Amino acid sequence: MSFQWRILILIFFVGAGILAGSVIPAPVQGETSKSGSVADVSDAQFEKNVVRSKRPVLVDFWAPWCGYCRMFSPVVDQLSEDYRDRLKVLRMNVDENPETSRAIGIEGLPTALLFDHGKIVKAWVGFVSQEEMKSYLDHFFDKQKPIKTPEAQ
pTM of this prediction? Predict the structure, then answer.
């Protein structure tokens, strides 16, 4: 087998999460993140905790076998910490909760969806940098601030 083929196979296995599992730990179902602010959500809880939420909700759709999901997990943890007063952040394991991910049409992992009043307002598919997500979230929350008019002051 040529060297190039070996490299391609290695890249495939790392992308599939087979080799990444020994390097980057997966989020554990039923536990919160290190910051203590990212909780799991199930198919049964999705309607209550996401669709009917009064606050915007960021949902990280992931799977234990997904290497990119493992790399993305710390980004979600940090966003949860940074926006804790304005944003609810949840994780959904798509292997254990297939109904919601199928109904929404999740096709790639990781996928992060931002919900506002039960509607998807932004989707990130694949590994996305924390800076890119923060840029969008900052803009999103700036748009929600009430406009001050001279009469209101």
Answer: 0.74
